[in-house]
Amino acid sequence: MSVTLKPVTAENWRALIKLKVREDQNGFVASNLYSIAEAQFGFEDEGHWDFYPFGAYVDDELVGFVMYCFNFNHSRFQAFIMRLMVDERFQGKGYGRAIMQQVLDAFRANEQVKNVGISYEPHNEGARKLYASLGFVEPGEMLEDETLAVLNLRYIMVKS
């Protein structure tokens, strides 16, 4: 299975905002419309975070959405995965994992990314299992009422 990530554009944003998760997952992820709007502004935390939203396609069929951001000067993580969602019609086919692999491969290719953060609702066991299987570790803290998990891509040496 080959997943292709394509940036949000004037041509695809309307299709992206029509994607939806199962009804029992509605509290787990913000809407794609909200995410696309949020991407225009970023946020400030130890400097500015720039957002990158993408549609996820399999054989030119839209199956999901992912958005990540970078702040290469952040002391803790230089990349953060803000959103991941797979449309309800395509769940259970491995697309979420494939999307995450694409994103993580891009992060691994960028030597400025030492650590990657992600957060999710504490009772979202599907997300917890997926992210743990990809190497994310929960440091035991919350980030705005969500469970934080971190993936170390490159060890940071601290000189004493």
Task: Explain how this protein is built.
This protein has 160 residues and is α+β, with helices and mostly antiparallel strands. It has four helices and eight strands, in the order E-H-H-E-E-E-E-H-E-H-E-E. Strands 1, 2, 3, 4, 5, 6, 7 and 8 form an eight-stranded mixed β-sheet that branches. Strand 3 and strand 4 (61-70) form a beta hairpin. It is globular and about 40 Å long. The mean pLDDT is 93.
Task: Summarize the SSE layout with pairings.
Layout: E1 3-7, H1 13-18, H2 32-39, E2 43-44, E3 48-58, E4 61-70, E5 79-86, H3 95-108, E6 115-120, H4 125-133, E7 142-143, E8 146-152
Parallel strand pairs: 5-6
Antiparallel strand pairs: 1-3, 2-3, 3-4, 4-5, 6-8, 7-8
Task: Identify the notable features of this structure and list them briefly.
eight-stranded mixed sheet; 4 helices; 160 residues; 23% helix; alpha+beta
Residues in helix, %: 10-25%
- What is the count of β-strands? 8
Low-confidence stretches: none
- The run of helices and strands is EHHEEEEHEHEE
Could you tell me the strand content as a percent range? 25-35%
State the end-to-end CA separation: 47 Å
- Structural class of the helix and strand makeup? alpha+beta
What summary fits the major beta sheet?
A: 8 strands, mixed
- What integer value in Å does the Rg equal? 15 Å
Average pLDDT: 93
Q: Write down the overall geometry.
A: globular
So how many helices? 4
